[in-house]
Amino acid sequence: MREEIQTNLHYVDILNEWDPFQLKNGNYDTEIADVIQAVHELNDLRQLARRIQTIFEFSFEKVIPLEKCLKIAGELVAVKENQSCSL
Q1: SS3 content of the chain, % helix, strand, coil (to 5)
Q2: Of all helices (H) and strands (E), which one includes residue 45?
Q3: What residues have CB less than 8 Å from 38, skipping those under 6 apart?
Q4: In terms of Cα–Cα distance, which of 4, 15, 7, 20 is closest to 79?
Q5: Structure pTM?
């Protein structure tokens, strides 16, 4: 359980650093929670990227280019894979 919490905190750090709309840390709490849920649900990189795009579009009414979403999805999936290997 502790490792899962550490992994989720790592996701939060990655997403706060990403800051797609340059709002500075702390303004994406709802979106980060939704993205972390999506990371746990989805294993397909493109599906995850599209979900990330949808989550942020819903909140901010701006579309993040899919390439940027794919890049962040890749970072999140890499963390997820590393965590599952260490169990």
Answers
A1: 75, 0, 25
A2: helix 45-60
A3: 48, 51, 52, 55
A4: 7
A5: 0.91
Segment 63-86, tens digit of pLDDT: 999 999 999 999 999 999 987 665
Domains of the chain with bracketed CATH: 2-85 (1.10.340.20)
Please tell me the predicted confidence (pLDDT) of residue 82: 87
What's the CA dihedral at 20, 40, 50, 10 to 10 degrees?
A: 20
Amino acid at 13: D
* Residue type, position 37, single letter: Q
Q: What are phi and psi of 78, to 5 degrees?
A: -60, -40
Report how far apart the first and last C-alpha atoms of the chain are (Å, whole number): 10
Q: How far is CA 14 from CA 8, 34, in A?
A: 10, 14
